[in-house]
Amino acid sequence: MSPFENGLTPKLKPLAPRRTTVMSVLDVGTNKIVCLIARLRPLEGADLLPGRSHQAQILGIGHQRSRGLKSGAVVDMEAAEQAIRHAVDAAERMAGVRVDSVIVNISCGRVASEHYSATVEVGGHQVCDLDIHRVLDAGASHSVRDGRAVLHSLPIGHMLDGVGGISDPRGMLGRQLGVDMHVVTAESTPAKNLMLAIERCHLHVEAMVATPYAAGLSALVDDETEMGVTLIDMGAGTTSVAVFANRAFVHADSLPVGGAHVTTDVARGLSTKLSEAERLKVLYGATIASPSDDRETIAVPPVGDEQGDGIHHVPRSRLVRIIRPRIEEILEMVRDRLRGSGAWAEAGRRVVLTGGACQLTGTVELARKILDRQVRIGRPLGIAGMPEAAKGPPFATAAGLLVYPQIAGVEHFEPQVRTRAQATGTDGYFGRVGRWLKHSF
């Protein structure tokens, strides 16, 4: 049965904490497709990073210009399949391994948040793993609207007899255990088509991860997620948002506008080809004017001029005047959506920008002005062996997909125990040894 038939995307089982494994991930975007193959090696003691159990060592990387995708959604199945094949093939040849399955990001389908609460009776006993499973299962079982698929079901807080703010209720006494759940959903049709394009490459999709969640896993530091932070991933076709507070992912949103729309604005405003507009944006683009912009000129080849005879020169200030309104619009839309959702209060005073579109000169300063927050550029953290060219904000999502398997267990509600005796560890020495072997190896 297809995982979408019951409204759920594929779920990844937790990594064994003491096992080294090789993982493959696929970042499918409007502008680029990136495949990373990495060895995840267990960390111990002082080497343990916040929220991470393994160290990722890059073995192979494949990078390919996107084809057949618009705003992260598949619009040409054949072209998208070929682009994915080329990216995966390049990573396989570099790593010397064959890829059979991947973890993939998703930014299409209007990623959004829903919140649910659930309670179960504990009966005055100590809370055990079985009780945790029961309440998580109850929280995750809420029906999702037709046409939506569940990407993540994340517990963001527990309550015991009405007392909230409990991070781990195991071993505590109470009569009623509650949980607040953050459920991230996306439109099922774009998600199905993305999954189909990958499966046509003879690859199994192990999990689908919301793009801003993945970017946050790689680019945020522990103190930011504790105090509250907003991550804005400014991609080519979409701008997606994740809010983290109290070390939990508490809100997601997305807008169907991004860096590709800036390129289109430049092409129209300067009457040039899209490829030339992208080049001019990257080389000379900015969101804040400088005193020299009126004196500095840039060469713009017009549409249809193959010989280069009709090149005209415009002041750089004109390019800035085209780019700035679109970036302002994106940031203002993010601000207004956060305020309307109620997540603005949880978002704290910090904003982290990732994605290729955030690299335009002056974007950080413009974001500070519009969002009234401290703003920094986010880059992949804690990934060994990343090529120098892949250490910037455009690769934060791909790197975060390698972090996701290390925390995927919080979404995996398959019970490890069946009875309260087993859950409290009173089922004997051999039962405990058996569970230790299962969990460790």
From TrEMBL:
Chief location: membrane
Leader sequence segment: none
Domain SHS2 intervals: 23-219
Classification via Pfam families: FtsA, SHS2_FTSA
InterPro entries, A to Z: ATPase_NBD (IPR043129), Cell_div_FtsA (IPR020823), FtsA/MreB (IPR050696), SHS2_FtsA (IPR003494)
Membrane-topology annotation of the record: Peripheral membrane protein
SMART domains reported in the protein's UniProt record: FtsA (SM00842)
Key words, A-Z: Cell cycle, Cell division, Cell membrane, Membrane
Cell compartments where the protein resides: Cell membrane
Biological process annotations from GO: cell division
Function: Cell division protein that is involved in the assembly of the Z ring. May serve as a membrane anchor for the Z ring.
Membership in a protein family: Belongs to the FtsA/MreB family.
HAMAP family with a match to the protein in the record: FtsA (MF_02033)
Subunit structure: Self-interacts. Interacts with FtsZ.
Protein name, entry field: Cell division protein FtsA
Gene: ftsA
